[in-house]
Amino acid sequence: MWTGAPQTRKDSGYGCTRYYPRYSVSPQISAEDLPAIAGAGFKTVICNRPDAEVPPSHQAEAIRAAAEAAGLRFEVLPLTHQTMTPENAARQRALYEGCEGPVLAYCASGTRCSVVWALSQACDMCADDILLKTAAAGYQLDGLRPALDSLAGN
User: Fold this and answer.
1) Cα four-point dihedral sign 66, 72, 119, 16
2) Cα–Cα dist 51/16, whole Å
3) pTM score > 0.90 for this model?
4) Which regions of the chain does DSSP assign to beta strands (E)?
């Protein structure tokens, strides 16, 4: 069950982690969670989890219906290791920067949403700062350093 208000650090409870006032990540949500997510002030939900990983009740269209019923915008950008590209990082950034109000991105654990956020920040923040933010949120992404450094050099 989704617990509501974003945390600046991941805690032992189920909830979400905020990287910026407008971008938070969460483990898998369910349709029943959407009213609480809307009540917490989110305006958009981004699904980064491919449908093949979840049962029909948790697939994007089921979550979309509940999100829209709760008055939320819903976007889908399914990510896997193979699709974690600079192009998809730019697409994710465009999705959350183009939204009015706070955005909640979710996947299985929040890791993919954190990785794509980190990659999308590489041109604006140094790798140390990105990795400090993700570590503070409970996501150890040190293995991304070479990719972050490479993207920053572009």
Assistant:
1) negative
2) 21
3) no
4) 17-20, 23-26, 44-47, 73-76, 103-106
pLDDT digits (tens, 9 = 90+) for 39-80: 999 999 999 999 999 999 999 999 999 999 999 999 999 999
Q: Helix crossing, 145-152 with 127-136: angle to 10°? A: 140
Joined together, the tokens standing for residue 84 give 């974690």
The structure tokens listed for 127 are: 């790798």
Q: What is the rounded CA–CA span in Å between residue 73 and residue 41?
A: 12
Residues found in the chain: 154
Residue 33 to residue 40: CA distance in whole angstroms: 11
Residue type, 36: A
Separation between Cα atoms, residue 27 and residue 104, nearest integer Å? 10
Give the residue carrying structure tokens 């909830």: 15
